Amino acid sequence: VCHVSPKMDFLSKGISAVLGGSGDTAQPTGAETIERLCDRLQSATRLDDRRDAVRALRSLSKKFKLEVGTQAMDLLVGVLDRDKADIEMTELALETLANIVVVQDTNEDGERVESDLGIQFTEILLKRQETIALLLSIVEDYDFHVRWPAVKLLHILGNNKSTHMQELVLSSPMGISRLMDLLSDSREIIRNEGVLVLLVLTRNNAQIQKIVAFENAFERLLDIVTEEGLSDGGIVVEDCILLIQSLLKSNNLNQNFFREASLIPRLVPFFELKLPAKPGTALSWDSQKINNILQMLKVWWN
What is the distance between the alpha carbons of residues 302 and 250, in angstroms, rounded to a whole number? Predict the structure, then answer.
């Protein structure tokens, strides 16, 4: 006997409600359902109806990535442009796009799976320069439910196609400045994701490295390292140090800037290690602390 989970039954009823009742008892296929939802999103005049359609597309976007990606991606980008004043609508569209382009994900059984579809849809999405310009403008919105999914989507796109993303961000006026603002966000989850986005974008790109460095990146990153506990900090400390390394690697201009800005003394407290309270007790460092120290030594050697 096949049992339908309460969650799936609720989802099915919700989607049926969005699409409207039908006398036909035959259940539509996933592709047919998505086609109807796209029609609803495109033709509905009421914002509530369009929002419900996007919500249903999000719920189907992991299981039916191919169908949602091929039929709905352009419509979802259109939502970001046309309905960006609606916070919930924007959040739903961003999360659906992220589900479409992500490479690593979890299936219904909670297992990790990889899909080349994410790369293919990333390539399609990045073909239009205005898409990234639109996402960078959305990042300016301080509302958590908008900024957080927008930053996550940019991170996924950057991981999937870093070189293309670098070109598009460089061609977008104030693009780097908007991303740099993330380092000052008081919400750590957004700030930390911003570090990861910049880490992807600065890798092997001297021009972006230079812009980021002259946007006061070194001081901001060292501030975060200090706030997070220096060498005792967690993975975010390591990520900040890796970004500093990326800005300095093979970049003589940034290396000179780092020295002339008198930032080297700010590294000293990182190596001020606390001795055990009890004499004769061996130092005990966890793997994260060891990584932090090793990575900061590489900065010092630069």
Answer: 9
Q: Dump pLDDT digits (tens) for 113-144.
A: 666 899 999 999 999 889 999 999 999 999 99
Q: How far apart are CA 242 and CA 302, in angstroms?
A: 13
User: Tens digits of per-residue pLDDT, 235-290?
Assistant: 999 999 999 999 999 999 999 999 999 899 999 999 887 766 677 666 778 899 99
- What is the distance between the alpha carbons of residues 286 and 288, in angstroms, rounded to a whole number? 6
Continuous segment of H or E residues that includes residue 113: strand 112-114
Dihedral over alpha carbons 129, 131, 136, 138 (to 10 degrees): 160
The runs of H, that is alpha helices, within 181-286 are: 188-202, 206-214, 217-227, 235-248, 252-260
Is the pLDDT score of 218 beyond 70? yes
Long-range pairs, 114-120, Cβ under 8 A, ≥24: 115/65, 117/65, 117/66, 117/69, 118/65, 118/156, 118/160, 119/160, 119/161
156/97 Cα distance (integer angstroms): 10
- pTM exceeding 0.90: no
